[in-house]
Amino acid sequence: MHPPGRPLQPRASSESLRTRAELLSRRSAASKKAVPALGEGWITYASWTNDTGTPVSRFSTTWTVPPAPRTDHGQTIFLFNGIQNSTMIYQPVLQWGPSAAGGGSKWSVASWYADGQTGQSFHSTLVDVNVGDVLTGVMVRGRKRANGYSYGCSFTGIANTNLPVFNIQELTWCIETLEVYGAQSESDYPDVAMTGMRNIELRCGSAAPDFLWTVNNAVTDIGQHCVVVNEKVTGAGEVDLWYRPSSWWLSGFGAIASGASQDWWFTFGGTGDAGPQLIQAEPVEPSGQLTTISSAESLDSNGYLTYHATVRNDGPDAVHFQWRGGGR
């Protein structure tokens, strides 16, 4: 059975990661009922490596237990926020299906400390939860001692989910992740468009670091993808993990002063013509008042379109914003 959160070391080569994933998949092959028709492993995730010089002291995320999948082929689904060091990952995990902790055709939660190199894992008691329950997974750092760091991991308000660890290497790589094994069809995913990993709070010491999440859409065979809705990690951050395609897109994250204007441009990965696009700047703070004052397209010699837009801040305060849009 799979433990969740196969650590993807940010400094490892892509070849070593594939080799490790294949090795781990072979170890659990005997537990699979069928060869998966869809890609498996880490499906989509957002990540950030703490390079501030101050260890992560708190990382919490709130999400809602999604509807059950419409079909059951023995698949396993993991949703979690987590922190990793060079070999181990620490994570409060929501799971559907079987794992090394148990489980089945139901939603359950547990805290995990797992090793992606040896497959060894430790976990708290698996506790069943219900569709619609609101979960908050929290990891906090304790005291640093000569032999390493101590951490605590649990789901707020859910008994028996705490899993403390002691004297370990500093945890530095922070992730919001969808991980899936054994899915045969689109209906083996939760029966909803996406799960919002919201109210993200991340602190290094007493300060919230200023950074941009890195998105990795590793498996996209049914349109799975990750959207960063709000980069702020002071309790308002949000990363949406999509199980299927969305009818709109988000791109970029910026800040603009009151009265200022900014010009932005967008491309679609070399696509010759992505069709007409509605593009607007969306404020992420309540006081934001942004006006998209112009939009345009330009065509290069290869026949590729670039989309341009200008935003103006008509509000009294500086504001963070994200571009969103849609088209054919």
Task: Describe this entry's structure for a reader.
This protein has 328 residues and is mainly β. It folds into 2 domains: 14-246, Jelly Rolls (Sandwich); 252-327. It is built from 1 helix and 21 strands. The chain has one helix spanning 14-27, and strands at residues 41-49, 56-64, 76-84, 88-99, 102-115, 121-123, 127-128, 134-145, 148-155, 165-168, 173-181, 194-204, 214-217, 225-230, 234-242, 249-256, 261-266, 277-283, 290-299, 305-313, 319-327. The strands form 4 sheets. Strands 1, 3, 4, 5, 6, 7, 11 and 13 form an 8-stranded antiparallel β-sheet that branches. A 7-stranded antiparallel β-sheet has the order 10-9-8-2-12-15-14, with no helix packed on it. Strands 16-21-18 form a 3-stranded antiparallel β-sheet, with no helix packed on it. The chain starts with 13 loop residues before the first helix and ends with a strand. Residues 6-33 have low confidence and may be disordered.
What would the CATH topology of the largest domain be? Jelly Rolls
Structural domain count: 2
CATH architecture assignment of the largest domain? Sandwich
Structural class by SSE content: mainly beta
Topology as H/E string? HEEEEEEEEEEEEEEEEEEEEE
Poorly predicted tracts of residues: 6-33
The number of E-state strands comes to: 21
> Portion of residues in helices?
under 10%
Q: Can you tell me the CATH class of the largest domain? A: Mainly Beta
- Give a quick account of the main beta sheet: strands, pairing sense, barrel closure: 8 strands, antiparallel
Distance between the termini: 42 Å
> What do the pLDDT scores average to?
85
Strand content: over 45%
Number of helices: 1
| Gyration radius from CA atoms, angstroms | 21 Å
Characterize the overall form.
globular
